[in-house]
Amino acid sequence: MSAFRHASQGRIDRNRPVRFRFDGRSYGGFQGDTLASALIANGVHLVGRSFKYHRPRGFVSAGSEEPNALVGVGDAQSRYTPNLRATQVEITEGLVSESQNRWPSLKHDVGAVNGALGRFLSAGFYYKTFMWPPKAWERFYEPMIRRAAGLGRAPTAPDADRYAQRFAHCEVLVVGAGPAGLAAALAASEDAEARVILCDEQAEMGGSLLHESDGTIDGQPPAKWAERALAELSRRPNVTLLPRTTAFGFYPHNMLGLAERLADHLPDASPDLPRERMWQVRAGRVVFATGSIERPLVFPGNDRPGILLAESARVFARRYGALVGRRVVVATAGDSAYRAALDLHAMGVEIAAIADLRESPDGPFVEAARAAGIRILTDTAVTGTAGRLRISSATLTRRGDRSGEDFSCDALLMSGGWTPTISLFSQSRGKMRWDEALEAYVPAESVEAERSVGACRGVFDLAGCLRDGWAAGANATDAASPWHVDARDTGHDGFRGECPHPHDPREVKSFVDFQNDVTAKDVRLATQEGFRSIEHVKRYTTSGMATDQGRLSNINALAIVSNELKIPEPKVGLTTFRPPYTPTSFGLFAGTARGELFDPVRRTPIHDWAVENGAAFEDVSLWKRAHYFPRNGEDMHAAVARECRAVRASVGVFDASTLGKIEVAGPDAAEFIDRLYTNPFKKLAVGSLRYGVLLREDGFVMDDGVVARIAEDRFQLTTTTGGAPRVLHHMEDYLQTEWPHLDVWLTSVTEEWATIAVQGPNARRVLEPLVEGIDLSASAMPHMTWRAGTIAGGVPTRLWRVSFTGELGFEVNVPAGYGRQVWERIVEAGRPFDITPYGTETMHVLRAEKGYIIIGQETDGTAVPDDVGLAWAVAKKKHDFVGMRSLARPALQAANRKQMVGLLTRDPAHLLEEGAQVVPHDEDVQAFVPDHALGHVTSSYRSQAVGRTIALALVEGGRGRIGETVDVPMPEGRVPATIVDPVFYDRENERLHA
């Protein structure tokens, strides 16, 4: 047994020994140990090097706020994870771990030379250096900085683990399973109809109760009461217990992200078990029982290995049986460190002295320490430490004295008081207030349906925590807890800022932020540089930018700034806490979206037929779409020209299955659609179609499509291929947040239907023999109507008469499973008419000939309907629609707005480049191009129907410039072009209505 492992204390399983490796050396521990507790039990405190100065660093805490003990874990690159906190890594048989930020070894780190250069590496040095000589930045400084930046090393192989995600709803979510959290969960779950989720980041629920030695609850030791409470909660069917689960983010409307660790603690985890699972929980109420964090003391040399928080040393000892040292000095400003000293003293650890910053400490814990024979030095601070790789002595100096007394020790415990953990409350946009008595910020005004209880709102005594939690769980203003508590209160005395010492403050390093090597001197320098807000001080010094987001450093940094500026802490402010609460793996956020699923390829039911028939494909959003169908060695231009001629002369067939399709159903469906689209839909008849335009709130065109009225309470609408998710989200947003009273359901049916467009003068003749129950005549089924029937031997179809080519056209919608079958029957029926399959490029040419827009090509996020020739689609008599008020803004009605026009180049064979600028005309083709362009080319094609090249463009005041000559600068010089109407073909729509 190690000299640093107590023979009996702790909750570890001594019958299950575990071997693990750290930096290549084998160590022993027990089931239930963390990597931190196991290393401490083996006498190891040196676990890392600091970021900037590469100073030796050891454990500071026992929790997730640990700033120093960041380790890499994994014996294979595919399962290697950097920057895990050793205090949260549970050891398993064969675990392989390593320290970080050192070379060539932890004990002998070349980077430690930075310590000797400290006076040149003060806060903000990077803002004032690396400026000369100019070329050195790219050749030397930047490569050097990039090599030095970052913590740990990224794995070189793909992550072999799996990650899961799930959604959950509950009436009450309790974050934190300490005394307040357990009480809240017990109270909330008294209502058998209330779903309650209790989560805690630790492997074992119970929080501080697991190591509490002082007091009883209902006559039981606190740990025993916690076991009984958890047993009761586990028996209740409406309760979900989630240990090893960190609430990492609070998002609007009580949506919280939880990270559950599922497999890392299992020695032989099933390969089918995800490593981690993300819970996205929507809660009716949230109870924060996140506790508080002990505050470090800021004194010279406070960062040596072996210097750690007093309560953390108590956790290591009582929960794991791991003793942080054999001869310990304690530095404190409150009673809680006395409790830790007494516990360690009872376990055989020599307490060399307690240095108390208070002048006259008293109370039961102080008196107990005196009774135990522990030497107490009042009004005394630590003013220096010694030891290279671990503390060997500490100098304790009475306030006002120039010299002090040296005490040999192998550990130093510090306690500057307690800081409520308000990170999640801050993320919820709640407002904090400064509590002078607690010397900390506490929750004040809530924005969301949440409530903070226990130590995270400044209630530190055990009885108060239980009472507070019970009242919150019961959703009561105040409620007496059902338990009798007999426990002593440690009070809430503390100290903030830099401890008094007789040294020149410019010559010592008193660390405020351990991970980023920020000292009290750096914080003072920031104020001397003129920074007043703590947010600015944070960015100048990087204090609070460590992985704990300043939970250890914030209050001390605030106090130093406050003291320097002679203003109270609330005037200095508080840094913002952002998600994630603790570092969270990328895999958790990615979930199954990796490999092929990271950018999934979507294929239509007709895709395989297109492959078999030689189609060339392009990616449109996530879809593979047939771009064109080359024959006999044709290039794209030849194939597209042939396809265009075929559609105009006879008939073509096109796979339009990728268009987004959304069903809108419910008694208020017509009202809902009428509010979203610019044109009216309430009176649209069943069996009719209507083109619709969607705007954003700012009045700019967002998407377009065709809306079909299926029944009085049901519509099916189409969107652009890439716009489907965006449109559905847009609709859900308005339905859930603006018009929740409307009785409407939205369903994506894109993949439920295969859509086959049959376009051309012979389209009707191709379909007539295949269709049953539908009269395709022009009088019975005019343009922009739809009919239900069967096709190809009984396949149900919704047949739309609609065209995006300007020709007589139909879109055959059939269940996706019948897509290829119906496609092949249509192709077979069309052979006498030389039916031609065509792709997206031909579709683009045909629609441009008719002046039809494509969202994202003719629109650029700043186009209103009138800009792209869609003023006719904006209702004049509607009371309101999304974006309507924005359209009334003068800037959106200005005469010089860019408007869609056609362009015909002087040379009919000259093809303009899409995206090219449009500028005023100059006969000199090499004339200087002005800075201000009139517009740009949006589409440009060779048109078989027009017999020349054509282009569409957005041009300032374009409709008023019809007939004007402009230039389009190209690499070979200016290309003159005439502005014309954007409809190049069949302006009277005779072919469309055939």
3D architecture notes:
The chain is of the alpha+beta class and 994 residues long. Helix content is 21%, strand content 28%. β21 (393-398) and β22 (405-408) form a beta hairpin. The longest helix has 15 residues, at 724-738.
Q: Key features?
A:
single chain, 994 residues, alpha+beta, seven-stranded mixed beta sheet, 50 strands
Strand content: 25-35%
Distance between the termini: 95 Å
Radius of gyration: 36 Å
- Determine the fraction of residues in helical runs and give it as a percent range: 10-25%
Poorly predicted runs of 5 or more residues: none
What's the number of helices? Answer: 24
Structural class: alpha+beta
Shape: elongated
Q: What's the total count of β strands?
A: 50
Average residue-wise pLDDT: 94
Biggest β-sheet, characterized? 7 strands, mixed
Q: What's the short version?
A:
The protein is 21% helix and 28% strand. The chain is α+β, with helices and mostly antiparallel strands.
